[in-house]
């Protein structure tokens, strides 16, 4: 059946299971593919709602100019809403936005004003200040103010949130949301927490954004430069609502951009850097969760808007972000392998333990080797074979401290070490590799653990 215009479509954006990118972790991760809205962004919903509301209230009339400041995606959505109704469109953008977004805006007939990215809020050259001045000085202008409009929050209460609930049949346990203003995460959090209070609502921002510190200390963090677009905030949104947000996590530019690139290679989802940041944060968290968790990520921006940036190898190299495309097995990291292990607690000895105590520990837990750890540092190891050889020479040694008989410590790797790196380390040690986790604890991985990860389905 035909539709009145591109905005009158009534079907939901897809909820897609991410298979290959996340196969090394236990929880199911599903993507709410908001970049499949007509404008290539979730702002399509917002722009249409704002203009509809403004028309009903008599705030905009034929011949008027819609004005806003934008990082690009919200502006494209607003321009599409404007041209279908015959309004002019004037947008203020920072100079860091991609060439593709600028070209799309011009193709839509939007007039754009470019401002310096390093101009902070409150400065006369900043996007917000320039846009507000234009509204005051242009006859018959309407300031859309999409990032801070009430409809930006409400459409996610009324539309996006219910879609997520229905598409997961109420099973969503963790929702990861890109944060620019507080509007989208506040709307989604309000709806889903009302449905099930134990759902975890996690915001994702780049390093340099202010919301993580705001959540944890009620004081906005110090803003710093970052390359990611369509994610992160420099000041507190008036729709910020900490009561429906469980955590804010940060992802650096390099990890976010490369995660987005890998998502295209592995799951054919052509998403942007904001989406890459959200997926990276979800996979990092998912490595520590079990299969009962059901994670949803909001993929909010379209990759085609970044062909000159994150999908351009030369640009990635110039910025120091380039990471060679990994093989399938290199997508499996130590953190992911730890997430697959049934036994989560590391069995370890301390220097003051006797050989008898260590042997009993091994017997009870059915292990043949343990690391020796002192004050959070791996200082050695001990195995059943070593204890046996000690007793053959001296059967009274069972009451001696293990520190006097330790073998060489296991190799130590970080949690982001790839399975190839772990395999190389295991060539140096016939026993295992110690992994340093984010909380400072250790986990031991063996060849069997690596084989299980490679064959895990």
TrEMBL record:
Reported cofactor(s): pyridoxal 5'-phosphate
GO BP annotations listed: cysteine metabolic process; serine family amino acid metabolic process; sulfur compound biosynthetic process
Keywords for this protein: CBS domain, Pyridoxal phosphate
Domain CBS intervals: 341-398
Database matches in InterPro entries: CBS_dom, CBS_dom_sf, Cys_Synth/Cystath_Beta-Synth, TrpB-like_PALP, TrpB-like_PALP_sf
Superkingdom of the organism of origin: Bacteria
CDD domains (UniProt xref): CBS_like
Family: Belongs to the cysteine synthase/cystathionine beta-synthase family.
Protein name listed in UniProt: Cysteine synthase
Species per Swiss-Prot/TrEMBL record: Prosthecochloris marina
Taxonomic lineage from the root: Bacteria, Pseudomonadati, Chlorobiota, Chlorobiia, Chlorobiales
